[in-house]
Write a structure and sequence with these properties.
The chain is mostly helical. Helix content is about 60%, strand content about 0%.
Length: about 110
């Protein structure tokens, strides 16, 4: 399911990575995951994302748009995002991180 949605997006992740370092940046991604997750399941679910969409400034999102967002990062097909899937999705959605990822892996000795 593809949606034709134009979204203005300013990629702050590269500057966050430089300011916080790799470890600090990953810690912030994990904090973002915890903010959006369903506390009982430990996953970002349709319901938890819909409930927390106001925090993202996306209160007018349709249900099919939320499903599409979840599907984009759902690697194991369970309909929800675990912490690893969320972090991978955030990296994939950041053009600046994708371009700089090889440099940061070498610079921060992340393997």
């Amino acid at each position: 399911m593809e949606l034709d949605i134009a979204v203005d997006f300013e990629d702050y992740f590269p500057s966050m990575m430089e300011r916080l370092g790799a470890e600090g940046f990953i810690r912030e991604l994990c904090n973002g995951f915890r903010l959006l997750m369903d506390g009982e399941r430990g996953l970002i679910t349709f319901e938890s994302l819909k409930r927390n969409s106001l925090l993202l400034g996306l209160s007018d999102m349709r249900d099919d748009e939320i499903v599409c967002m979840l599907s984009e990062g759902d690697l194991d097909g369970d309909g929800a995002l675990n912490q690893v899937e969320f972090c991978i999705l955030m990296f994939r959605l950041s053009p600046g991180l994708m371009v700089g990822s090889k440099q940061w892996v070498e610079e921060y000795d992340v393997v």
